[in-house]
Amino acid sequence: MSNPKIAALITASGGIGSHLILHKIQGHPDLCALTEAAFRSQGGTTKSDLKKYLSQNIFPVKVVNEQLLPKKDVFETSCLILNKPPLKMINYHRTFHPEVPVLYIFRNPVSFYFTWIKKWKEYGERRYRRTVTDVAVFEWFKATFMSSLFELAQNYDSERDSIISFEHFFNDIDSELERIFTCLGVSVIKSEDLEVFRGCSTCGTEKVERKEMKVRGERVEEVLHCHRHGVSLGPGEYNYIRKEDPSFLNKWKSHPDAATISEKFSKFFGSDIIEYYKNEEYLTDTSRIKFDSLIHEFLRILKVEV
Ligand SMILES: [Zn+2]
What we know:
The chain is α/β, with parallel strands linked by helices.
């Protein structure tokens, strides 16, 4: 079997479901989702290992230990998925390997922003003992999301790359997975048939119990629990047995600033995209005809044509 190809899952920032999507990808026998440290760490594989792999086909053996759980034989897989690398690193390699696909997660900007208001507030207080104002979060979010999309637009190819719609993913996971697997050139497998890790993420034992516990702050969820190492969670506090529930998707609409923020974002995204989420059109636009046309048009506008 030939060495696995390379693909990348890219996001503008956290808070956009990358861990759920990457763990689903890892559940596919032909795909290997790497950890965030892969090709970027001290001690593990480095950026130069990726260069050597792509230019001289020297397989970076250490990468075998830089994959999500459940671990698998990397050489039996057909594609390694880089975990949120900088897009510019992928664009650099695409100069020589234009076939490398990017999976990019897009989420309703307004609800994504409200997630960050909460995150930055907690993080600022805990880490910097600063209360981050909503205005500061807005400016940071706008700069981060828009520069990421601008960068994506310059090199986006709908035949090679795939936009993962966060809202569609939570509402109909199998149909979004089908798009991902098709983009990566592997067989389509349903979510319930993908492999799931059912052990302790520290010692690997499968003698774990299911317990109701608090995870990620205040949420009570059923989690795997090892009698020696406690709660078994993946990167980003990913709960291996989390229940998928799309009911949170429209909660942003009851935020007191929902109308003001929607109006602000309409100025960069256009009112069509913002209205699409406000009207929860992802529930009826199940084939994504409207979503794809809105996103492709948006990326087309962002692309600088010479
Ligand atoms: Zn353990």
